[in-house]
């Protein structure tokens, strides 16, 4: 009997809002994050970084550093494995430069010493000779014919001939005939948009504590979104067997995509191997900005044709993504997400992934989608304005629905875009009056969501409580969601379940906590693991009653005979079945491992009111409403938290945040003072509406929620500001000087 | 035979066709057939693709079934944050 | 460099430590006294994750030297609960889900506690400006502000 607990209604635990299991640890300071671990005999490390945007490394002289008291080891690229290929080589080259420093902040050497202060002094004493090379940090300039080549031969097979070698990946898709479509339109608008690189801005800098012995066995503690990925990459870079490195994920102080890869972990391990001592390595905030993985900056052209009744006749977009000194800028996802909300007969999108002398970009919450939405939704807003059409009517008229063809090819399954649009239009926010100087903007947004390799193990205790081991680091309360889903299947209280993030030696492989996959994939695996335990519990009951196991069913924590034919047996509570489990067949566990491929895509619609100060050009977001399809909200409070957090990050991206490079190719604002993320006094309360259009690919209907929330804000805020000042804002961030320029251009 | 729709960047590699017909009852078999019959697409498959089957994005699993009449679309492999 | 002997009180307990004159109070708390509740998010006083009180005054412990703690009374997140009874702010932060990753939480709790001691009836705007020195990247501050406001209301009722 395969138990199937799939349902979308009548939940007992799912949809409630209990306290999170790690709450007490986190409000008392007990929770252990990346930098909170220590080990006996531990050394502290510091990394020597290039001050140049692009330079050949001629010589590294560590003799003065090594002569200092307390210095135990220095490593350079020579201390890492050779012969790596593909993305693993890219990551190693980024972790520790080989022959060339590729950006300001690129690691070139590292030192371990008996104190953090000695390590810092010794790092400064390492002498590096460079030969400066020409550099480029801007995406459009990097594609120009005269741009310096960052690395010849980095382009893959997707790139057509004739493009600059800095263009390393290319994506093009679409259907229909856009030229014919534009000819049918009553109004065609084409515009150019740019966004700057932003940082995920997690408050916890990258940190790790590594131990590696000459026997090739190691232990690593680190803050990461995916410790199996850390294990795999580090093992390859140190030339050891993957299984010999045990990686434990600490509590993680924010990631948002930025902790899906590695920057310092192999360095700590290499130093540990050389010094034969545990090594702790913690990035400074300046290092986080200079040398972790910000998102891409973009240069985009979007052209859309519309009939006077609001029908979109054709859409075309070109998206150029600056991805730093390595391939990886998410050009294809930008292009695929761009027009996803719309049902288009004629659509064409092109993406370029362009290398520059900047840090290797990393994923940032729905990589690529927020920028694409900014360009596309701005043009749609402008079309609505010029044609005198209601922005909701136009979006509903052209909205993607089940069975319509997505801009990137396939037909949509059941999706919830229309439901978010209708809920947003019905929200009191949309009809609330605006004050002088305020503007309102709306935008839709789309993200794919992901499944991925997943293993979960569940073990019953004798007292009928359960422990769950999952392998996806808990970034925003997922342990609570796992316990809720297991409680639903087992029929035991939420409080009787403990969910732990297992280390790499305690559970099978798990892909990273990315792609909004945790509640979907680890949740699905938790449900299946709990079902496996329930099946065993039913077998034990059947044996006690001496009836076939098919004649037993599970309800609300009890095994029950399935009908009169099964005999007259009093239901057996879970505690009666676990109490003697050792004697009735052994421990009762459940496990599940698979690559679930039913992640449901997700759409959102945001409404924002912005107020512009005409004197200073400063913008304040005065009201914000997020409407998003969650499929099923397992713990609604944490779903709201994801909606609010994504909106807040989007507000920062739209108004303040940007990587600023000088002519010398150096990052000018590597700190929270000059890279300004939103603070409490910048923001209003952020209203949320959870729409639930169940995902058929998950037993309880879950869709990922973490990423979609950052897709609409850039566009929604740009539309609000544009409507407030009466000038289309085409460049992000909309810092006060830009808004003032816009106002002046109107007056002039 | 199953029709596999290609993103337009791939069309020059297969003589301008916007889809190709290949044998296969699973995602893996389909990708193997593409590799065999259209070697020009092999580097693209090596770089990583996802396959959309009847609207469902199959990110990496090769064992997902594909029906004779399934709608199959190739996509560059997705990754998230 | 020779170290300096420092005597202070942390969360009511007498402590002594030797510290390098370049070490910050945050370094001392975390590396010498084993109190890792205060976090280093920036080291430059911009993020507030290292917030503690010194003689009742809210400070960024990354901006104060360890040697300056001589004779002072330091308060950290580890000291705000009374035995097994949580401070009302701690309870409300859990109840309101006013944390996602939790890295900023210790600093925000210290800052919020410091606010409510000065101003038991703050407006939303006052809470937002008081906490403007404490960065949170996960929550958009919404549930944090609500938790602080509700704690204030509850503490007023109780007193």
TrEMBL record, chain A:
Keywords from the named record: Molybdenum, Oxidoreductase
Alphabetized InterPro entries for the sequence: Ald_Oxase/Xan_DH_a/b (IPR000674), Ald_Oxase/Xan_DH_a/b_sf (IPR036856), Ald_Oxase/xanthine_DH-like (IPR016208), AldOxase/xan_DH_MoCoBD1 (IPR008274), AldOxase/xan_DH_MoCoBD2 (IPR046867), AldOxase/xan_DH_Mopterin-bd_sf (IPR037165)
Keyword set includes Oxidoreductase: yes
Top-level taxon: Bacteria
Aldehyde oxidase/xanthine dehydrogenase a/b hammerhead domain boundaries: 28-134
SMART domains, alphabetized: Ald_Xan_dh_C
Protein name per Swiss-Prot or TrEMBL: Xanthine dehydrogenase family protein molybdopterin-binding subunit
Organism: Pseudodonghicola flavimaris
UniProtKB/TrEMBL annotation, chain B:
Transmembrane segments: none
Signal peptide: none
SUPFAM superfamilies, alphabetized: MoaD/ThiS (SSF54285)
Pfam families according to UniProt: ThiS
InterPro entries in the record: Beta-grasp_dom_sf (IPR012675), Mopterin_synth/thiamin_S_b (IPR016155), ThiS/MoaD-like (IPR003749)
Protein name, UniProt field: MoaD/ThiS family protein
Organism listed in the record: Pseudodonghicola flavimaris
UniProtKB/TrEMBL annotation, chain C:
Family annotation (InterPro entries): 2Fe-2S-bd (IPR002888), 2Fe-2S-bd_dom_sf (IPR036884), 2Fe-2S_ferredoxin-like_sf (IPR036010), 2Fe-2S_ferredoxin-type (IPR001041), 2Fe2S_fd_BS (IPR006058), Beta-grasp_dom_sf (IPR012675), Diverse_Oxidoreductases (IPR051452)
Protein name: (2Fe-2S)-binding protein
PROSITE patterns given in the database record: 2FE2S_FER_1, 2FE2S_FER_2
Record key words, sorted: 2Fe-2S, Iron, Iron-sulfur, Metal-binding, Oxidoreductase
Residues annotated as domain 2Fe-2S ferredoxin-type: 4-80
Transport is among the record's keywords: no
Pfam families hit by this protein: Fer2, Fer2_2
CDD domains: fer2
